[in-house]
Amino acid sequence: MAQLKFEIGKLRYLLLGIVYSIVPFGTLYTISYLNLAAIINGWLLFITGIICILYFLIFPENKKFINLVTYAGLIFITVQFFLVIASLYGNATTDEIIIETYAARIFLQGKDPYVNSNMVEVFKFITPIFGTPMLNGNNVYFLLYPGMSVLAFAPFVYLNLPDYTALYFFSILLLLFTILYLKNNKMADIIPYLTLVIATDITVAGFSLSGSTDVIWIFFMTLSYIYRKNTKFSGAMFGLALSAKQLPIIALPFMLYLIYREKEKSMKQIVFFILGAMFTFLLTNLPFILMQPQDWLRNMIEAEFQPVIGIGVGFSEVAFAGFVNIPSKVFTILFAMTALICMLVYIKFFNRIKYALFVFPAIIFLFNFRLLTTYIFDWIVLDLLAYVDFYKEKEQTRLLNPSTPGSTISIAPLDLKKLKSFIKKNSSFLLVLIIIFAGGTSAVVYESMQLSGTHIFVINSVSNVSDPIDVSGYITSMDVSITYNPTSGMNLSSPVFFRIIPSTSTGSNFNSLIWKSNHNIKYGMNNVTITPAIALYFLPDNSNFRIQAYYNFQSTFYSSGTVSLKQNTTFPNYGMMYPTYTPSNPYPGWTLNQGEKQFSYILKNGLNVTGNGANMPLTNSAGTSSMKLTDQPANLTYLSSNNKILRFDGNYTGEGTILSIKGGIVTPVLFYGINITFNNTFSIFIGFNSTANKTTVYDSQNSIYIITSNFTINFRQIYNLSLTNVPYYPVQFITFSYEVRSQLPGTYDFSFYNFSLN
């Protein structure tokens, strides 16, 4: 019986069919049923997937037809990703793209984005979900990338388009030039595989979904590689890539050596390439250099030396996660040492690894202190293009020499004779590598020894784990006992910041949980209360974690056991520090809308400072303006039994609350105050009036009115007043709303701030 032949090449169409069919369902939860464009595009994508599966099972061989289907699927899937992005975000959410877009906006207004003071309001209107915390407690808000990072966004800002539109535009151009390069090199058969990569790897496909701007430099780097035979144009494109971000500099030595060898070791061509790169780099940066050369140069240098916390995957994880105490400078040394070794290896074995030039940057970045996903995956498209040239060169060799076998995969046993011969033949080269490695290792040991024995910060214990703002299921406060031992020449007091690394997942929050203290620590032992910097950094209840205390390059770690809230204490948002709790909008500095009424959140010092209160207007109409910050009830039994008192400051129009009392029925003519509701059946109204000499209590139907001049709420008093009016429960819960009521037309205003609960 003849053996059946399986066409492995057609399997790709089955895989494509599965991916195309699944993506509409996989993106369903991010796209509204009211999005007609997404609905129709989902149909087309699903139908394309079914055609690919049918081609695999039924259709006769017709490459022209299936290639058209593949291209159509590629278009539909990129449109689907764009619709997902547009549905999820009005704008992209990383600090990187927000900073670059804002820089383009103020540049169009005639301001210099490299003057840091011009960038202080960058997060005023869009707060990044993914920020970059620095070791000094601040977040990166200034522009650290060269001029093309601004100019690329300028047209889209001018047209008032969402910021990710620029990234999507460059993604489409990158895809187009990649496909054209494959077709021009008669490798169109690989396009379905490229489509599969794009469909399954969101990092390569969208770029803009996470807000990474790397696609801009990758596009120009792609042109630089594709057109490298024209060294002037290739250099010009490399200059634009370098002007979009400093990251491509790591590939420059490999690119230069590739051109040097392909141009028959012509230094003249290398000079042309460098001059082309210098020309476009300077051209795109000249407007900013002319504005303020010192500020531009400072930000270019600081980009590589800014003191930021470690995140990502790589060898530095054991250091920034606290397993081993290794200073970040060690990874700078390892990075430089690896880059030098990789370059020497590329030069030595160029004939065999010529087209691996874009693999080496990924290897080098493994030693970077911060290793983001893009630092590795950025090079995938470039690796694909290099493979085209590798494959083409191998095929040409095979055609010229038919006896040359095709590409095969085999695993041969270790041949010690060949190994000895290799060592002997390359002894000088290996000696150079050993010397470099020994030098780098010595520098690493020296830097590590500088750190050993120093205990500037020492965390002694963690206590009083609590949730004072009453966010169900989360810890939002704890006390840390920390000792500060400054060495000679250091200040006797120091700021200190904290990072909590839980043993459980923190989702996509690569920064872990950044917490802060409002006080500096002094020489000796200190006890500080720490809280999350923003709501994104709430710690899940029943967690064990490692906590890091740091400031600049001083750091220490402390590992906790499992910690949990001993009691749900309590009071919803008394400090009004975290007005929303949802991951989609977890940041202070909000505006709350209820119908036609709008309440604005007051900030202490403007941008990026946690707010401390709210302002509530009632304008040109009789009625009620009411704001309830949360539906989460407060535990009145706990508040009363612990003698808790809520204090705050406030302002209101005129003298304040005015009551009308007729027949024992109390009616507020004008009311500024708080409505405390019990089980949705009974209310105690606390009204404020500046002329009240004493606190007065009025009973009314289903309610009690308290008139006072003090912005103080005694929960023992509230509890006692409720006992005769509210059915008794073992624990009584109350909800709060802040209100302005008026029976008369006019303009009324009520502000409240500086809350404390003690």
Descriptive report:
With 758 residues, this protein is an alpha+beta fold. 41% of the residues lie in helices and 20% in strands. It has 24 helices and 25 strands. Helix 10 (214-226) runs antiparallel to helix 11 (231-244), helix 13 crosses helix 14 (293-305) and helix 16 (328-348) packs antiparallel against helix 22. The longest helix has 26 residues, at 63-88. The protein is globular. The termini are far apart.
Number of strands: 25
What is the name of the CATH architecture of one domain?
Sandwich
Taken as a percent bin, the fraction of beta residues is: 15-25%
- Report the mean per-residue pLDDT as an integer: 80
Q: Which class of one domain in CATH terms?
A: Mainly Beta
Brief description of this entry?
The protein is an alpha+beta fold.
Question: Topology, please?
Answer:
Elements: H1 11-26, H2 36-57, H3 63-88, H4 95-108, H5 148-151, H6 154-158, H7 164-184, H8 191-200, H9 202-205, H10 214-226, H11 231-244, H12 252-262, H13 267-291, H14 293-305, H15 317-320, H16 328-348, H17 350-353, H18 360-365, H19 373-377, H20 380-400, H21 416-425, H22 427-451, E1 457-466, E2 474-475, E3 477-484, E4 493-494, E5 497-502, E6 513-517, E7 521-522, E8 524-532, E9 539-540, E10 545-551, E11 554-559, E12 591-594, E13 597-603, E14 611-619, E15 623-627, E16 634-635, H23 636-641, E17 645-652, E18 658-662, E19 665-678, E20 682-688, E21 696-700, E22 703-708, E23 712-714, H24 715-723, E24 733-742, E25 747-757
